[in-house]
Amino acid sequence: MSGLPSGSDKKCPQCERLLPVTDFHRNRRRADGLAYYCKTCAAARSEASRRQRGIGALKKSPVPAGLKWCPDCGEIKPLEDFPRTRKASGRHSYCKPCHNARGKATAQRLYGGTREYHLRRRYGIGEKEFRELLAEQGGVCAVCGDPDPEHVDHDHRTGWVRGILCFNCNGGLGQFRDSPARLARAITYLRGTTWQRVLIHPGVFQMCSPTRGRPPSRRS
């Protein structure tokens, strides 16, 4: 093993014993390639930390195939109850409820809440910048003018924030793929300046142009 001190022993600062290097876990981030504490002390410290956080004792009994043990809630659950991950195991260590609870706790600790975390992670702005931008718009949706919009609109190509929109306007731009050409054609269509199929008799349609006028209605 590269980076190890001379000899084959190392002193653990916890138990102050001089032990063989095989009594220490590997740690590539450390200069000597070994963990700071010996395996016994590392396990004891980990267990003490878990108890301090109110987490149950580490389960040692084998878990049947197709199931997985969650160290937070201490329950054995089907693999489908654990979020997928790219790790070798294919599943996160904690079940979905515990995984979500940890995520919320982290967002609360680091950002003061899940919304602040979402805004900064997704758009690069915080609640303060959101409120400032909304105030510049007069407190209304930048497209339709409805009050109290809650959705950040951004350019999907550059990632730049464009404004604050209501749910319908934000979704509408997304459905039109942020394409000015598609929106222009939609406006032309709504204004009735394109050929349209008109019902002139039950089950009979005719293509009509506004420049030529529409067939008279057959409703009596």
TrEMBL record:
It comes from the Bacteria. Keywords: Endonuclease, Hydrolase, Nuclease. One of its GO terms (molecular function) is endonuclease activity. It holds the Pfam family Endonuclease_7. This is Endonuclease VII domain-containing protein. It comes from Micromonospora coerulea.
